[in-house]
Amino acid sequence: MPRLFTGLEIPPDVRNRLSLLRGGLRSARWIDPENYHITLRFIGDIDDRTADEVAAMLDTVKRTEVRVRLSGLGAFGSRKPHSIWARVEPNPALLELQSEHERLLQRIGLPPEGRKFTPHVTIARLKGASAREVASWLSIRGDFEAPTFMASRFVLFSSRASQGGGPYLVEEEYPLLADAA
What we know:
The chain contains four helices and ten strands, in the order E-H-E-E-H-E-E-E-H-E-H-E-E-E. It is α+β, with helices and mostly antiparallel strands. A hairpin with an 8-residue loop joins strand 9 and strand 10 (168-175).
């Protein structure tokens, strides 16, 4: 039974810039740079037949490339922080691509995603870090920026059941159309 999600990959130069943020926070489990990604839609553990339906449905997506800009850092879990992330600036192309994934996956019977889409790249998982420690870490590094890039494809990732952070495997890739502008 595969655990699947759709997402955008992060190019090597941006992964490198993100990896320079590693360190300086006790109890952080840093995500390996090759596992950095932007989740578009978490699918979860599904059977092989449903996985085939997901792959076929995603093949119907015909969208243009997505401009991606990472700017700023944040944490999920205000009182009890559980992860640190780099903010992905929302834009219409990104939001429309994510919304289409949501609609298509609901169409084949998957339940709706319960969380609001907050585009980000998780860079660390936290266990036992205080809100004060995380706030201090963020205050030093919070002005993070990375070069803008164009995502020319989205992918269907699989992961092993674990505590997060990979390894993630590309099961299928779906090209995005070159932007005519």
